[in-house]
Amino acid sequence: MPMLVRKSLRDYRRALIGWTIGICVFVGMYTSFFPQMHQNPDFYNQAAIAKYPDSLRKLMGGLENIASGTGFLQAVVYQLFVPMLFIMCAVILGNKAIAAPEESGTLELTLTLPLDRKRLVVERFAALALGLLGIAVASLAVVTILGSSVDLGVAFDRILAAHTGLYLLVLFFGTLALAVGAATGRKALAMSVAGVYAVAGYVVNALAADIEAMRWLNRLSPFYYYSEGNPLVNGFPTGDYLVLLAGTAVLVLTAVLAFDRRDVGV
Amino acid sequence: MTAVVETEGLTKFYGKRRGLEDLTFEIRPGEVFGYLGPNGAGKTTTIRLLLDVIRPTRGVARVLGAEPRDAAVRGRIGYLPGELALEGREKASEYLRFLAGVRGGVAKGRIEALGERLEADLSVKMGQLSKGNKQKVGLIQAFMHEPEFLILDEPTSGLDPLVQQEFLAMVREARTAGRTVLMSSHVLAEVEHVSDRVGIVRGGRLVAVEDVAALREKAVRRVEFHFDAPVPEEAFRGLPGVRDLKVEGTSVSCTIDGRPDALIKVAARFTVVHMVSAEPDLEEIFLTYYSEDVHHAHVGA
Ligand SMILES: Nc1ncnc2c1ncn2[C@@H]1O[C@H](COP(=O)(O)OP(=O)(O)OP(=O)(O)O)[C@@H](O)[C@H]1O
Ligand SMILES: [Mg+2]
Predict the structure, then answer these.
(1) Which of A223, A225, A227, A250 has a 20 to 30 A CA-CA distance from A207?
(2) Closest B-chain CA to A3
């Protein structure tokens, strides 16, 4: 493993462990509620409908079929809270690549090592991608193991497909933060850009089902490519995932080129 | 031999703010170059330009025969940043090993030896190091791979006097080994004993480059002789460079400008019981010589 990747992962270690535990606990807790739902399907279906007003329920992905394994998993794990939490983690890690060390001043010495600036960005991206992959794999294991112990009845390949989408989604937003940081060196700006895009993207995607005007806008939302193919039911939506991956690639390229051109630490 | 640093019209503006303007100078192989100037003069700006941390608005710089953008050339440089930031839970020794690894490794035991020499405790987490100890870690990483060219931005800041002496010894050793050093400082006194040449930058412009030995020769110094018997004033009158001559019984005092040779030879004709020679204050000459007014007069002429 290239030295800077290893070093970055070592620096991220505490954050990675913390986020892994946080996300896994979150995922595990929700997954383990399933037996209750499953045993009282009518009650929970009714409750879900009664508890949330129509518009809010739409924002939460409909909450239909919450008593079936697939519907349940979609609603509690892949819909709102877990992706948002995971995105928050990705954005914070993305900021650790360039913007945070630049603001604290520690980037200057790294920059004067015999390392090409382009390589620096690429290796920091690799560390981000690997770190997020670690969290994704751990949480996938939690969903799979707990899921089978509570008899979710969702095939592993479907869970894998959905989890891959989750990983690509958070990688995209993490890379967005990295790219804004690489281009500007501003942590807060990177955080806001990624945060606003994530929230706006989510809302647009949730409302697009009902509002015609949102449909074309939805094409700009990463959440569209994340959820449209319904991977828990249909398996890998390869085309959609490739779009997410291509978006990430464009961001990496932008980050590399922008960082290579500018003054650091001014 | 080609110059270690060569700049031409090197200029950096931060937006409208001037950082450095029209710097043309060179640093020769094997010399220690003291880079002096008050706060905000442009020292750090110059150094960051040489290391490609920032990019010039105009002009060019070549370092070790290559462009600063060339990453490979940075492996031959040891750099101590002026605003060194070290943080986190990582131990200083681990961080140093990482830096050494990226630079292609350092001799075994080298880090520990430097740590002992500067009395730095490398087992401390970097975020908990005191200012002076951070500076020591900064120095160790700059020196550890025995680079051809050392760029040290205010290396003595935060160091106690004993460690400062040790540091100066390290600079001397580097020069003896044929390495080149660029070090910045606010005061001449800090660098004059190790520098071959000094450059003064002020308000973003290089106002003077002087040879330290030549400067010392120009220096005015106060000298006092005490003899075992009264001496005739005529013997000391009219000697080259001797001024403010005062002969009072058995003692002679004067200031001398340049070499003390003639004075010493005359004094040697009598029996000298005691002699006082104050260290010349280069700083003072420098400051008067290059005070703002003088500088403007130079430029105007
Ligand atoms: N990031 C920046 N943005 C705007 N102006 C800057 C920036 N960095 C430096 N300057 C300006 O450039 C000039 C030169 O600054 P520089 O840091 O090179 O001075 P210096 O000689 O290193 O001073 P010091 O002895 O205080 O370290 C100053 O006027 C400073 O205000
Ligand atoms: Mg400075």
Answers:
(1) A250
(2) B102
Tens of pLDDT, residue by residue over B111-132, are 999 999 999 999 999 999 999 9
Name the residue facing B87 among A104, A115, A264 (closest C-beta). A104
Residue A89 lies in a domain: yes
Q: Is residue A249 part of a domain?
A: yes
Q: Between B134 and B242, where is the model more confident?
A: B134
For an interface test with B, which of A3, A102, A112 has the most B Cβ atoms less than 10 Å from its Cβ? A112
Task: Indicate whether A266 belongs to any domain.
Answer: no
- CA-CA distance, B276 to B223, in Å (whole number)? 6
Task: Note whether B139 contacts A: Cβ–Cβ < 8 A.
Answer: no
How would you label B263-274 residue by residue, b for 16+ Cβ within 10 Å and e otherwise?
Answer: beebbeebeeee
What is the value of pTM for the model shown? Answer: 0.87
Domain B5-211 listed as CATH 3.40.50.300 = yes
* Alpha helix positions (H), A105-236: 107-111, 117-149, 156-184, 187-207, 213-218, 222-227, 231-234
- The partner residues of B91 in beta bridges, in order of sequence, read B125
**B82 close to ligand 1 (CB < 6 Angstrom):** yes
Q: Is the CB of B74 under 6 A from ligand 1?
A: no
- Which residues are within 8 A (CB) of B203 and not within 5 positions of it... i.e. 6 or more apart? B18, B41, B42
Written as six digits, the tokens of A110 are 């790294």
Angle, helices B92-102 vs B131-143, to 10°: value is 30
The whole-angstrom distance between A112's CA and the closest CA on chain B is 6
Q: Is residue A99 part of a domain?
A: yes
Chain A CB contacts of B90 under 8 Å are 10-11
Q: Which of B10, B13, B44 to mutate to test the pocket of ligand 1 (most atoms within 8 A of CB)?
A: B44
Hey, is B162 helix, strand or coil?
Answer: helix
B61-119 tens-digit pLDDT: 999 999 999 999 999 999 999 999 999 999 999 999 999 999 988 999 999 999 999 99
Domain limits, CATH 3.40.50.300, in chain B: 5-211
Cα angle B161, B166, B168 (rounded to 5 degrees) comes to: 95
* CA B152 – ligand 2 centroid, Å: 10
Q: Supply the range of the domain harboring residue A209.
A: 3-261
Q: Which of A3, A259, A262, A9 is nearest to A118 (CA)?
A: A259
Q: Is A109 on the interface with B (CB under 8 A)?
A: yes
Pick the CATH number of B220-277 from 3.30.70, 1.10.3470, 3.30.2000, 3.40.50: 3.30.70
Ligand 1 center–CA B7 separation, angstroms: 19
Nearest ligand to the C-alpha of residue B48? 1
Residue B24: count other Cβ atoms within 10 Å of its Cβ.
12
Q: Ligand 1 pocket, B19 CB below 6 A?
A: yes
Distance separating alpha carbons of residues A159 and A67, to the nearest angstrom: 17
